[in-house]
């Protein structure tokens, strides 16, 4: 079983074989992503694997850089500018800025330029009544214009087509007649949900991803076959749920942004194994720190997400918030001469000054190198040598009157404080008491920064899982296959609605079972709905719905479940108000094999022996001595008091003074404050 997480700089590969976890990290080949994937997979022994699970940010990167195929957009006449207007609201930073513009608007970098957005004469009302029949001659004329423009795909989103998609289906037939085999996505298939703009943007993303991932998937499958792989390929969606590659390519918009959610899935699976159900996940890489929350063993899932401000996608996604804090965060000076860290990043090219690749600004990595925490000769599994002199020169160039020692010390404190602020904001956003939650520290820089956060934020402990530098890739071998369906229908939850609700659930479940082809006992079906109180505008998502026939008792249970869910999320309960369902959802869950973490060596009577001792500078007024351990040398129940350093191939854990670390049964490092 192999999991692959394709990032913008590196591709992480984990292989599970014979109870052992093999990790491989290779550079991502920009423009030919599959080459890096195949190189890492071969090194991990893909020919002997039976399952290949894949996640990538390739789609997101294509959207951010606008390296997109040329797409045509068809909509109801008079509505082609919905992709320019979005939902007509600004971010907080743009409220008082007269120059602010949407990044994807016609004044910026549109996904589909206005000349490729064509209106078609037709109209269906909100109740499904055909007000204006589809004008096929007019549609053919517009399609011929798009053909002359050389479009590579078509996205279709007609007003109210979520109620009746016949016009869209006919347009898809006309696309085939006029443009041949050009891929065509229609919103009534892609996202049959209310709210025109989100449905339109989702359909455009689907059309783009259908082309991008279509070509990529062909090359990946051919390369894996040449490497001797004969097993099944799964793609992860934006909630790190798996689907066979054929099923995933039927709804490619769901895999546009799969990588970050895998870390949350890995935390959830590993947390279940060690008995920790309340977790704040912190994935600290080179540029950003991604936060997510697991409550009672469940992650927070959203029904939509944004790729850029107001660029919406109607897909299930793990709720993740990012801040500009990572190993590459730039150390600077503000107008008052004080040290700042981030949110700007040196990235991987040129990278931190100590990389020796032309970077001249100091970063968090340079900070920890000068402190003595990082080993200059064994960074990134020995693939990169760090130059302490270049890091020193970068700090010396800072325009501040502070002495060198304080520059480094304050850079360390600011880097830690930035992440601590992110943890606090995450707790406030989710309404949780951080004292009841553990910090799961992963990503290459997570174990280096997160333990120090415990001195600022009152979390229960900081846990460094096995293989933290590739932990997100382990999330891809920690998930089930999940297939989803959803339909919009505005229905008041009352006894008169039992038949309509039952028919909706039955129709979606039948289609999912036909699509899967699995035996009944292999699939677990779950139901839920999004609803709101009478008079509200925003829905409460994922309210549980009962299995079986929908009768009066079942509808009453749905109402009661809504009030319970609403109270859990808002702290309020309004049983006197009626409840209206907006979107009905069904999930088919197919259990698959998951990673089992090997046990750490059994406990021993003697304490662990450090490989060497290092001088840690600038943490206090005077240098302090810290023992340095190799993680592979540690046994269960070993205890180490800070300051101390624990090294492994792709990460370094830094335990600050006043903390104690204890090794868990799977080799996890559990760090707590002693006071």
Summarize the model shown:
The protein has 675 residues and is α+β, with helices and mostly antiparallel strands. It is built from 16 helices and 35 strands.
Give the arrangement of secondary structure elements.
Blueprint (H helix, E strand, L loop, with lengths): L1 E5 L3 E8 L2 E8 L5 H11 L7 E6 L1 H8 L5 E6 L5 H4 L31 E4 L2 E2 L5 E3 L3 H13 L4 E5 L8 H14 L4 E3 H4 L5 H31 L5 E5 L5 E3 H4 L10 H16 L4 E6 L4 E7 L2 E2 L1 E2 L2 E4 L2 E3 L3 E2 L2 E3 L5 E5 L5 E7 L18 H8 L16 H9 L7 H27 L7 E5 L3 H8 L7 E4 L6 H5 L5 E12 L5 H19 L7 E10 L6 E6 L6 H19 L8 E12 L21 E5 L7 E7 L8 E3 L2 E5 L2 E5 L3 E5 L5 E5 L2
Parallel strand pairs: 1-4, 4-11, 5-6, 5-9, 9-10, 13-23, 23-24, 30-32
Antiparallel strand pairs: 1-2, 2-3, 7-8, 11-12, 13-14, 14-15, 14-20, 16-19, 17-18, 21-22, 24-35, 25-28, 26-27, 26-28, 29-30, 31-34, 32-33, 34-35
Helix pairs in contact: 1-7, 4-5, 10-12, 12-13
Question: Can you give a write-up of this model?
Answer:
By secondary structure, the protein is an alpha+beta fold. Among the domains are: 68-207, no CATH class; 329-415, no CATH class; 482-590, Dna Ligase, domain 1. The strands form 9 sheets. Strands 13, 14, 15, 20, 23, 24, 31, 34 and 35 form a 9-stranded mixed beta sheet that branches. The chain has a 6-stranded mixed beta sheet with strand order 3-2-1-4-11-12. A hairpin with a 5-residue loop joins β7 (123-124) and β8. The longest helix has 31 residues, at 196-226. It is globular. The model has no long low-confidence stretch (mean pLDDT 90).
């Amino acid at each position: 079983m192999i999991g692959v997480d394709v990032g913008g700089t590196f591709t992480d590969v984990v292989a599970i074989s014979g109870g052992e976890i093999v990790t491989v990290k290779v550079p991502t080949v920009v423009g030919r992503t599959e080459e890096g994937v195949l190189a890492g997979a071969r090194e991990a022994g893909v020919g002997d694997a039976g399952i290949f699970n894949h996640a990538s940010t390739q789609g997101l990167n294509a959207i951010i850089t606008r390296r997109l195929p040329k797409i045509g957009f068809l909509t109801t006449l008079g509505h082609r500018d919905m992709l320019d207007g979005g939902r007509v609201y600004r971010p907080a930073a743009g409220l008082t800025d007269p120059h602010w513009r949407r990044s994807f608007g016609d004044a910026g970098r549109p996904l589909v330029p206005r000349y490729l957005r064509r209106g078609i004469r037709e109209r269906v009302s909100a109740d499904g009544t055909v007000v204006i029949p589809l004008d096929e001659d007019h549609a053919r004329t517009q399609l011929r214009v798009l053909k002359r423009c050389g479009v590579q795909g078509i996205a279709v989103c007609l007003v109210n087509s979520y109620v009746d998609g016949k016009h869209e289906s006919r347009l898809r037939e006309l696309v085939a007649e006029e443009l041949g085999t050009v891929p065509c996505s229609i919103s009534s298939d892609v996202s049959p949900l209310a709210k025109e703009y989100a449905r339109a943007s989702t359909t455009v993303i689907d059309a783009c991803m259908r082309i991008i991932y279509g070509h990529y998937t062909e090359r990946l499958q051919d390369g894996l076959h040449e490497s001797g792989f004969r097993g099944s390929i799964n793609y992860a969606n934006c909630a790190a749920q798996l689907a066979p590659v054929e099923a995933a390519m039927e709804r490619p918009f769901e895999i546009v942004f799969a990588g970050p959610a895998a870390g949350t899935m890995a935390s959830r699976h590993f947390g279940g194994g060690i008995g920790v159900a309340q977790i704040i996940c912190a994935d600290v890489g080179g540029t950003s720190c991604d936060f997510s929350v697991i409550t009672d063993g469940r992650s927070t899932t959203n029904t939509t997400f944004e790729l850029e401000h107001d660029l919406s996608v109607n897909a299930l996604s793990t709720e993740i918030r990012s801040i500009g804090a990572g190993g590459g965060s730039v150390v600077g000076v503000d107008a008052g001469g004080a040290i700042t860290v981030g949110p700007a990043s040196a990235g991987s090219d040129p990278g931190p000054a100590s990389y020796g690749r032309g970077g001249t600004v100091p970063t968090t990595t340079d900070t920890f190198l000068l402190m003595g925490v990082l080993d200059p000769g064994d960074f990134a599994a020995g693939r990169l040598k760090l130059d302490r002199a270049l890091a020193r020169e970068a700090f010396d160039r800072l325009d501040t009157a502070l002495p060198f020692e304080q520059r480094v010390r304050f850079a360390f404190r600011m880097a830690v404080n930035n992440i601590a602020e992110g943890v606090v904001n995450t707790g406030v956003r989710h309404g949780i008491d951080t004292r009841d939650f553990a910090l799961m520290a992963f990503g290459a820089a997570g174990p280096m920064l997160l333990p120090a956060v415990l001195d600022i934020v009152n979390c229960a402990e900081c846990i460094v899982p096995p293989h933290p530098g590739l932990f997100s890739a382990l999330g891809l071998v920690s998930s089930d296959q999940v297939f989803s369906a959803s339909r919009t229908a505005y229905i008041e939850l009352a006894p008169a609605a039992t038949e309509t609700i039952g028919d909706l659930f039955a129709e979606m479940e039948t289609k999912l079972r036909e699509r899967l082809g699995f035996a009944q006992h292999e699939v677990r079906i779950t139901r839920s709905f999004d609803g709101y109180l009478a008079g509200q505008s925003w829905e409460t998502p994922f309210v549980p719905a009962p299995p079986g026939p929908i009768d009066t008792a079942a509808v009453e249970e749905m109402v009661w479940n809504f009030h319970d869910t609403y109270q859990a999320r808002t702290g309020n309960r309004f049983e006197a108000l009626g409840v209206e369902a907006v979107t009905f959802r069904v999930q088919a869950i197919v259990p698959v094999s998951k990673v089992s973490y090997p046990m750490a060596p059994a406990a021993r009577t003697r304490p662990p022996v450090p490989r060497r001792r290092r001088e840690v500078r600038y943490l206090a007024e005077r240098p302090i001595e810290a023992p340095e351990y190799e993680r592979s040398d540690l046994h269960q129940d070993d205890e180490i008091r800070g300051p101390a350093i624990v090294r492994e191939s792709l990460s370094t854990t830094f335990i600050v003074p006043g903390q104690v670390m204890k090794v868990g049964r799977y080799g996890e490092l559990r760090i707590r404050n002693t006071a």
